[in-house]
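Field reference: "sequence" (input) and "structure" (output). Example, SMI1/KNR4 family protein:
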Amino acid sequence: MTHPDSLQTLLSLVPPEHGADEQVDWAAAEKALGTRLPSDYQAFMAAYGAGSFGELGILGPLPVEYPQWNPGSIVEDTPQLRMLCAEEAGRHAPAIDAAAVLAWGTGCNANELGWLTVDEDPDRWPVVAWRRQIAWNDSHVAVFDCGMTDFLVRMMRAEFDTCPLGDAPLWGRTAPFVHWREQQRRWQAGLCPETGEPDPVVQGFLQWP
């Protein structure tokens, strides 16, 4: 399921200029989650860390201390994604066990992304998406036969039949990756978290009494 070259392709599409090794304690993550995580995700955390491609956030595995806002984590975000998947059962949705879902991404107009942990080998887990905006008689839940980094590459290259999410800012295009700590540093400096440019809205918020 996990394509061996997908991370290298992603690195060529979006160099991790503002990424950072998350330095994850993988033993602690496995204990907290009750499972190992896919090898491409682990390699992603070493190359990029947790953060965002534009509007799409990639979660770290464990909760962290933060200076401004909670960047989220697999541990914290998974219950919400499981609830959304469980609510969709029977509504033209693929037959999945919501309890087998682990979250790894969020954003692009409140879409949620995760893995369907249907195999003992995490590298064989498909991606599951909960899409807020869908066509009539479609399901909010969709399963994609690929790993996380391959999903990101195929979305940025528009290699699915249609946009896999309900919003399309990364469909057929890329966005710079910014680590969550850099985003929060920018915010505290009055800059746009995504671009690093001065942002009057952020500056006004920081000056609010």
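The longest strand covers residues 101-107.
The chain has seven helices and seven strands.
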